[in-house]
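Methods, example record. To illustrate the input and output format used throughout this study, we show the complete record for Threonylcarbamoyl-AMP synthase. The sequence lines were provided to the predictor; the line carrying structure tokens was produced by it.
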Amino acid sequence: MGSWFRRRGSIAWIRKKGSVCGQQQEGYLHEHDPQPKRDVMNNLTTRIFATDQAELDAAARVLAGGGLVAFPTETVYGLGVDARNSDAVARLYQAKGRPSFNPLIVHVGSIEAAKQFVEFDHTALVLAQAFWPGALTLVLPLRRDSAISPLVTAGLETLAIRVPDHSVANGLLAAFGGPVAAPSANPSGQVSPTKFAHVRDLMTGRIDGIVDGGDCGVGLESTIVATKPTPTLLRAGGLPVEAIEAALGYDLALAGDTSAPSSPGQLASHYAPAGTVRLNAQTVEAGETLLGFGPVDAALNLSPSGDLIHAAARLFDALHQLNAMGAARIAVSPIPDHGLGRAINDRLRRAAAPR
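The corresponding predicted structure is encoded as:
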């Protein structure tokens, strides 16, 4: 992906030594470990926060103290930590069971706030002004004077950053007053949460708090674009690629090898339900449960009318429901590969990938 994706120092050394900035990171992932060195004990008291200002102030104090707080955005629920606190970020990786080579997205409240941490070129500024706040993450060169923990960037010289378009998320960011690193609030590789109940059921006991902000409107993670060396789509998401290309006046390049992710959401297997997934199913085989799209008879249907916006908002909740139903084999109807359909198909391909 060019010089902007060189790694800062040796992240392998960081993982092998298990320390950052002289602080021991107990249980942090080693270079070849697929899982943390020890399991997270489900023994934390997880506080549920409401969305009034006093409660958001309380949640912000938990973040300031190094705690992990899940909160809603317009895309999915995020699991937030202070992006400057390496101890807190290490706890986040452990709570999720997330590989340490997979970088995190930092959430801030404005373009001006983002400029404290990354360097904007002309293309980045055009996109930020057009789509922030919103479901677009930009991968930009990290400022040398940035206070962001190297664990957030996985040792890269870039930072994934966005401004969310959600009143609760923005209220929490304002109350906290700093950058919040926040991947999806679920165990790594599993289905992303779009409802409070999803987070409660998956993460209670693993994290310090959850802000109950109801359902997420978009229902898919943000679209991720790197602007250097060439504007490149790294992940399809809640902002249609066509809108970005229209704003730029040209097509985005496509990311290549993702064995060493340059942004979140690039792992081959991700967003996976418990059952196996078969895509583009025209018929349903014995023992399969159909996740439909359009006018088909299905156990669950993302959108009987074929509306891609509705389908995107329902996708992850439908996969959670299929888990609750005990669906061991899931067949998925064909979904058009344009607009938000491109992001839906991206998530489904990763859900269907070998695990």
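Annotations derived from this record:
Residues 276-352 form one domain.
The mean pLDDT is 87.
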